[in-house]
Write a structure and sequence with these properties.
Helix content is about 60%, strand content about 10%. The chain is built from 21 helices and seven strands. The protein has a five-stranded parallel beta sheet with strand order 2-3-4-1-5, with helices on both faces. The chain is globular and about 80 Å long.
Length: about 375
């Protein structure tokens, strides 16, 4: 509890609520007050939000936050700012350390509530520590806290399972005792996504026919499809969903490709939105220029490509092929040419850049282009 604010942000299914709950349990009984508020879309009224926040604090000990409760419920309708001041004074007067957790903060979209939270964080007493668990980035300015080393951010890289954790979960928690090569395959398919690992582990087929099951699971089990569909419907408008499906033909993408292939008018804003929502995309470089989808999410989107029709899918590959040719990214140009069925064109690309590739690889190995030439 050395940080004023701990921000736990990751897509659905990474165990945010579980890990935050474990932290809270660790501090119970240590002369600390543990308050928990689970949020929903219905909590976007500023007064309702503050009322629930006060209530979550008041139940941590007898007669706590009584003045704040009276103020928020007063018929004289005290202003939100007045109630805030009363609450902060009561928190500061407490001798105990206070841990306040706000779960599912991504449900909050009211700018007034974000401003309220910024004021509470800015004016917090030293004994108040706040944890916010959210699927998306929160629109609250936190740069000052970061500079003061009062902000801890935990993201996907911190929450996803590493291979040793996945092995321990399979062998000790669900007692599957799978061979190491099967566990490794599950790790590669899930990329450490906790919900994906749990869904796979619940299937009896993982014991009986693990390799066949995991190959099918990677293509999208029914439970996995339903889960990802709910995430898409909950977070994105339909036009963004369509752009994601269109971009799923790409192994990697950037701002320009989102505009050309995804059909969005502002690729930069689109990628910023996806990053802000933590929607199963990963940056491939330090400059955040190139991105890719999580493997399971990519497979899920590609299955939905069929709804666009074969003609539309071929048109998308043609757009992608032309873009990669224009930017002399030959390996990907070849892949999309082959997807269209243009084998001769793919061979032309390979021949055109073979000498360039050989110059870059003195040992004569032409990498993916060599493989593509074999397929062509």
């Amino acid at each position: 509890m050395k940080h004023a604010l701990t921000l736990v942000q990751a897509p659905a299914g990474y165990g945010k609520t579980t890990i935050v709950g474990q932290w809270a349990d660790m501090y119970r009984g240590e002369d600390k007050l543990i308050a928990w508020l689970s949020l929903s879309e219905e909590d976007n009224s500023e007064k309702r939000f503050l009322s629930y926040l006060i209530a979550s604090l008041s139940i941590t000990k007898s007669n706590f936050c009584n003045e704040s409760i009276l103020a928020i419920n007063s018929e004289l309708s005290s202003s939100i700012e007045v109630v805030e001041s009363i609450l902060l004074a009561e928190l500061e007067a407490s001798r105990e350390e206070i841990l306040l957790t706000l779960d599912d903060y991504h449900c909050i979209t009211n700018p007034e509530i974000h401003s309220l939270m910024l004021r509470l964080i800015k004016n917090r007493p030293e004994n108040l520590h706040i944890i916010i668990a959210t699927r998306s980035e929160i629109p609250i300015r936190l740069s000052k806290l970061k500079l003061e080393n009062q902000l801890l951010i935990l993201g996907v890289s911190d929450l996803r399972m590493d291979f040793s954790e996945l092995e321990m979960f399979l062998n000790e928690v669900v007692e599957l005792d799978l061979p190491k090569n099967v566990a490794r395959l599950l790790y590669e398919v899930s990329e450490g996504w906790v919900a994906g690992v749990q869904m796979a582990a619940l299937s009896p087929r993982l014991r009986k026919e693990p390799k066949q099951f995991l190959n099918e699971f990677a293509s999208g089990s029914k439970d996995l499809k339903n889960y990802l569909h709910e995430v898409l419907v909950e977070l994105l408008p339909s036009d963004c969903e369509e752009a994601l499906v269109r971009c799923s033909i790409l192994e990697r993408f950037n701002v320009s490709l989102c505009e050309v292939v995804g059909g969005v008018s502002d690729g930069n804003a689109f990628l910023e939105k996806l990053s802000r929502l933590n929607l199963f995309i990963f940056s491939l470089d330090d400059n955040n220029e190139w991105f890719r989808f999580h493997r399971l999410f990519s497979d899920f989107l590609r299955e939905r490509l069929g709804q666009l029709g074969k003609k539309e899918v071929l048109a998308l590959h043609r757009l992608a092929c032309n873009w990669f040719v224009a930017h002399e990214l030959w390996s990907e140009a070849v892949s999309h040419a082959l997807a269209i069925g243009y084998s001769d064109l793919a061979k032309t690309f390979i021949e055109r850049c073979a000498s360039e590739m050989l110059e870059k690889k003195p040992n004569g190995h032409t990498g993916q282009l060599g493989e593509a030439n074999t397929r062509a």
